[in-house]
Design brief:
Length: 248
């Protein structure tokens, strides 16, 4: 049985004061959640989030990590720094990082290794742009994102990775992929994983869908065979929406 995970990616939202208010409201509302609940606040809110979530069922995630242990990398954050906040998950390779900050597959591969070495679960994002989909390149894009990111990752380690399929055209646009479409593409991702590793890995790896997930889309999405959960952006910073999604 694969784990169900609902993760909120807050992106660049919420000061520490706003984080405190939001989490104090959210914690009691999802305390009986049947799935793993994760929130990924900005770095500046990790301390306050960590303090509030300490005695809750909500796990803390970060939105990025640098692959070097320390050094002259202005503006970056290391694994050790994240560890001090009891971070469990780290989002790696989000399309916004790939497109606005020029993150490459090679960087993403290094970040995955850094996460695994430090016992963080990477939430590894893949997804095609609308242009790529319309040009019939979706499968080759996804395949190369996955192959490059998993380069050198052992069969034992790859099972610890959570994959998030986030079609770029569905992020923040309100145009969610249909549940069937998302289910089929995630099925394709499982095939790619099977070709690199084996059937056991592809059947056990947790794969989320992300892209305009809302309270009114989640039930059907979670009923799909291949979809194990969601990576939620906009709806994760509204308490009532995130609560409904968690309780799909
Ligand atoms: P939205 O849910 O706002 O479309 O964002 C999805 C996303 O990018 C989560 O990482």
């Amino acid at each position: 049985m694969r784990k169900n995970i609902i993760a909120g990616n807050w992106k660049m939202h919420f000061s520490s004061e706003e984080t405190k208010k939001f989490l104090n409201e959210l914690v009691p509302k999802v305390s009986d959640a049947k799935c793993e609940v994760v929130v990924c606040p900005p770095f500046t809110s990790l301390q306050v989030a960590s303090d509030i979530l300490k005695n809750s069922n909500i796990k803390l995630g970060a939105q990025n990590i640098h692959f070097e242990e320390k050094g002259a990398f202005t503006g970056e954050i290391s694994a050790d720094m994240l560890k001090s906040f009891n971070v469990s998950y780290v989002i790696v390779g989000h399309s916004e990082r790939r497109s606005y900050f020029n993150e490459t597959d090679e960087d993403i591969n290094k970040k995955i290794f850094t996460c695994l070495k430090n016992d963080f679960v990477p939430i590894f994002c893949v997804g095609e742009t609308l242009e790529e989909r319309e040009a019939g390149k979706m499968k080759s894009v996804l395949e190369s994102q996955i192959k490059n990111a998993f380069l050198g990752v052992s069969k034992e380690d790859v099972k610890k990775i959570v994959v998030a399929y986030e079609p770029v055209w569905a992020i923040g646009t309100g145009k969610t992929a249909t549940s069937e479409d998302a289910n089929n593409v995630i099925g394709f991702i499982r095939n790619v994983v099977e070709n690199i590793y084996d059937k056991e890995v592809s059947e056990n790896i947790v794969i989320l869908y992300g892209g305009s997930v809302k309270p009114n889309t989640i039930k059907e999405q979670m009923s799909m065979e291949n979809i194990d959960g969601a990576l939620v952006g906009g709806a994760s910073i509204v308490v009532s929406d995130f609560e409904s999604i968690v309780k799909f």
